[in-house]
Amino acid sequence: MKWRCPNLRNTRVVPFFVSLLVANVLQAIGTLINGKWAQDRAVQEGVLCHAQGGIKQAGNVAMALWSFTLSLHVFMLLFYRVALTRKLCWIWLSVGWFLVAFVVLIGPTTIQTPERGSYFGPTGFWCWITQQYPAEQFFLEYFFEFLSAVLSFFLYTAVLLRVRGNLVKTSGRWNLRFVPHGERWVLAIRRDAVDGYMMHVAARMVWYPVAYTILLIPVTIARFVSFSGHNVSFRAMMFADFVFNLQGLVNVVLLLTTRRFVPDTEALPIFTPRKRISVSSPEALGITPFVLPPPPPQAARQDSVFGATKEESEVGESELGLTRTVSASTVGTVGSQTPFLHIR
After folding, report:
1. Is residue 319's pLDDT more than 60?
2. pLDDT score of 327 more than 90
3. Residue 186 pLDDT level (bands cut at 50, 70, 90)
4. Least buried of 100, 108, 173, 255, by fewest C-beta within 10 Å?
5. 3-state secondary structure the chain
């Protein structure tokens, strides 16, 4: 399957999405180790258990980090239209993976104490951060996951409102407005070609944080119920873990669905600044649909209806700058309804 989208080649989105998929691979590896515990019918303390704890934490933290990074990058691309250089992209990738490694290694190397025991160890049906470190369980993993989901949702929503024309900046101030369904043409005034092409892309990318949050909820509930001292059944925990590990599949499906709407960014001026609309201009309030003015009283007169002579009608028509097109079949016809043609 070709995951690479050539239309995104100048946006630096692909490296961040690859990092997201690597995070999904780490999550999958951590889950596959559960097969060992199922075979032994017990979760045993040891090197493999510690490795599983670190791999699972690395995958979950990396998933949260790169989901937010992708959201922030798309936000900069479509909201502010700021390009990311190749150098800055590599710096961003290096710092991101360094942060993931730091969060995972700080536990067993710095936080772990002999009094509280091992940092990574058996935690029910698999190995993870042990219950002797409840604050670390939340702040070094769950906190990143929830923060990523919430921030990504707001960023994608802001992008969608921006490209649709609901969120605009006029005279240095941000304005948010909504219009009835029948007046959506007003929003099109705020959009240029780039926003018009990217509106469908942004509408689908909002589903990334939504899907991430939905898949995160079951395992979070199961974990917090377990931490509170209540028993969680094996089937419930396996179901929650199964749903959580669907993130890689969901990301690929969303990518394949979204890429169909991505235009060729090599030809599209994606980094062109938006047109600026002054708050005092008519565009700031929308454009009133064009309505033809009523005809002047002289133009409404008909030759025979009002009893005017042909010469009088021709004089009145010449004063108004109007001419009549006639054919042989209509010459001499009384009360002709042939329309006047306005010649500029």
Report:
1. no
2. no
3. low
4. 173
5. CCCCCHHHCCCCHHHHHHHHHHHHHHHHHHHHCHHHHHHHCCCCCCHHHHHHHHHHHHHHHHHHHHHHHHHHHHHHHHHHCCCCCHHHHHHHHHHHHHHHHHHHHHHHHHHCECCCECCEEECCCCEEECCCCHHHHHHHHHHHHHHHHHHHHHHHHHHHHHHHCCEEEECCEEEECCCCHHHCHHHHCCCCHHHHHHHHHHHHHCHHHHHHHHHHHHHHHHHHHHHCCCCCCHHHHHHHHHHHCCHHHHHHHHHHHHHHHCCCCCCCCCCCCCCCECCCCHHHHCCCCCCCCCCCHHHHCCCCCCCCCHHHHHHHHHHHCEEECCCCCCCCCCCCCCCEEECC
Name residues whose C-beta falls within 8 Å of residue 180's C-beta, 6 or more positions apart in sequence. Answer: none
* Residue 124 pLDDT > 60: yes
